[in-house]
Amino acid sequence: MQPYISVIVPVYNAEKFIRRCVDSLLSQSYRDFEVLLINDGSTDRSGPICDEYQERYENIRVFHTENRGVSAARNLGIEQCNGEYVQFVDSDDFVDENYILGMLEGISEGIDLVIGGIRQVEERGGRFLVTKEYRQPPGEYSKSELGEHFRDLLLNSYINYCYAKLFRKRILTDHGIRFDQDISLGEDTLFVLKTLDRTNAFAVKEEIYYNYVQHSNLTLTYRFRPDKFRVLNDLHFAIVDFCKVNRCYDQKTRTALDKRYMELILFCLDENFKRGFPQALQIKKQLGVLLGDEHIQKFVTQGNEIKQQYPLILIQAIRSKNPYFYFIVYYSLIVYRKVRSKKNEKAAVRR
């Protein structure tokens, strides 16, 4: 008998977390489901740990592949799963015991996608502390009502991740919806947009069952990616096009997207400075390419209210296209903020 739900878990070097993740799935109150563990070429003990679970539990299947990335792992899961509905869980996250059941309760006639909230948690001293929650008022909406509610989904980051959702598999297979294996930024968002575009109706759950784990204590190796802005820029305009097609590109949505775009510009520019002063000078060329990008220059030159939320000198530095000028302004603002912060701390102590 085929399982009703398939849970796809991409696994890469997750030996520290995978047991917690899988155990949370095995503790589900709902039982008619399978778990697909896709070991994406892990070099630690993740593979053997997955095999242990497969030997002990009939509803767990393991696939070992060469390292091709999380999108390829999820796509393999979609191709191999047997359930009528599909869910995705990341190997370093965990779910509440009613995760599957709670999401299933959002299914009614015609619903092809159920969207849930997430709980952002951080481990401190052996305990998980909630740092943020993303939740949305519940409701069921037809495709024609998507435009009315998309902005709320956008502002609450609901389209940014594929987990905490329940997808009707037929929608994915009939329309060839897969994760883009050529990008490693924003692939979740594109996948969700493609699905929303093909759904007859979708539901939003207010309850939160998914725990997204932040790893603030991990030191990640920084790797500059000159294509980061191009990828995220393409993603931004994919969202804009989606809004226009679905008639939800009103002033509020445009303002929200402008804010996201400005944050994107600063994020990509700031990436150049993560390795400190000497290294930042070495990648002056990449910084110059970003500052000269026509999309960035058009955005900071045209009139919009978002620019008013940032220091004028910073906007002028971007418009100058001069890497050295931007570099000086960037560090001057950092020093200014640190000095102001210390003054505020001293003033608070005097009170």
UniProtKB/TrEMBL annotation:
Pfam families in alphabetical order: Glycos_transf_2
Key word Magnesium present: no
Keyword Glycosyltransferase: yes
Sequence ranges assigned to domain Glycosyltransferase 2-like in this UniProt record: 6-173
Keywords (A to Z) from UniProt: Glycosyltransferase, Transferase
Transmembrane segments: none
Database matches in InterPro entries: Glyco_trans_2-like, Nucleotide-diphossugar_trans
Family: Belongs to the glycosyltransferase 2 family.
Protein's name according to its UniProt entry: Glycosyltransferase family 2 protein
